[in-house]
Write a structure and sequence with these properties.
317 residues, mainly alpha, disordered N terminus, transport, mitochondrion inner membrane, MCP_transmembrane
Length: 317
């Protein structure tokens, strides 16, 4: 009995890398679909929360200006750092979440999702990826806000993500890359706890609804319904994530892109300042493109993650 348990544990640890590979593939699909929406969101957060300067009427107005002045390429500004950052970050997030959840659950019989397992697993994964996500997003955001509508001086403009990173280190030191780190940790820990809780419960409910009707059916409709479940559970979970933490994301964008390096890095103080300047609406700047992006981008991430897991032979309850 002991030998069998040891063998099972060894087999599980030896295939753990598959969880990280599946997560990496999910991250790439997220960037391809979601980056243009993210660019619009960041520009709205940067410009529409300032007392002076350029203002966009809405997300469509912002998108039209980007396309007119910069073309489609403008919508993918900063995507290079986002591809590397998101792929690496997604790999670690999904991998850590899967491994931590498995460790906390052990071999206990489970009748459904358990919040006492999901929340700490997701929050832990979110906290860890923040150390990768923070510098990646800082470079991405600074590249995104310096488009043709930017008021940034010519000599401080960045020619590439690498140039942005090097200038940041030169001007602010290595710690400058981690400006907004506390806010990123808060956003990712809270947001991913909401995301995975929503995903697991919707997925569980939809699986319960479909299983009785699918007994004895062939694999093709099963596969199509699996994709449908992934789209709905991933999409709704993505909307829940951003609905819960968008104010923190707005604060992070301001903290990472404000020219004054001595300005506060406290997200609560930043949100208080935004509220005084633009009201409650400013704290949710970029809500439209964020939610429009959240559903397809996260649906793609979950469908890709589950498909990659199936191809790699990862068994899920």
């Amino acid at each position: 009995m002991g030998d069998e348990s040891s063998s099972s544990s060894s087999s599980s640890s030896s295939s753990a890398y598959k969880d990280y590979i599946a997560g990496l593939v999910a991250g790439v699909s997220t960037v391809i679909i979601g980056h243009p929406f993210d660019t619009v969101k960041v520009k709205l957060q940067k410009h529409n929360t300032e007392a002076h300067g350029i203002k966009y009427r809405n997300a469509l107005h912002c998108t039209a200006r980007i396309l007119k002045n910069e073309g489609v390429r403008g919508l993918y500004r900063g995507a290079t750092s986002s591809f590397f950052g998101m792929a690496f970050e997604s790999s670690i997030l999904f991998g850590l979440y899967s491994q931590t959840k498995q460790a906390l659950q052990g071999d206990k019989n489970r009748s459904g999702p358990q919040l006492q397992v999901i929340i700490p697993s997701a929050a832990f994964g979110g906290a860890i990826i923040s150390f990768i996500l923070c510098p990646s997003e800082l470079v991405k955001c600074r590249m995104q806000v310096q488009g043709t509508d930017s008021l940034v001086l010519k000599h401080t403009r960045y020619s590439s993500p690498l140039d942005c990173a090097l200038k940041t280190i030169k001007d602010e030191g290595v710690t400058g890359l981690f400006r907004g780190g506390v806010t990123t940790i808060l956003r990712e820990s809270i947001g991913n706890a909401v995301f995975f809780s929503t995903y697991e419960y919707i997925r569980h409910y939809m699986q319960l609804q479909r299983n009785p009707a699918l007994s004895g059916s062939n694999d093709q409709p099963n596969a199509l319904i699996d994709v449908g479940v992934g789209i709905v559970s991933g999409g709704v979970a993505g909307v829940a994530f951003w609905s819960a933490v968008l104010p923190l994301d707005v604060a992070k964008t301001i903290i990472q892109t404000v020219p004054d390096t001595s300005s506060s890095r406290n997200p609560l103080l930043t949100l208080q300042s935004i509220y005084k300047t633009t009201g409650f609406r400013g704290c949710y700047a970029g809500l439209g493109p964020t939610l429009v992006r959240a559903f397809p981008a996260n649906a793609a991430a979950i469908v890709t993650w589950e498909l990659a897991a199936k191809v790699l032979g990862i068994k899920r309850e």
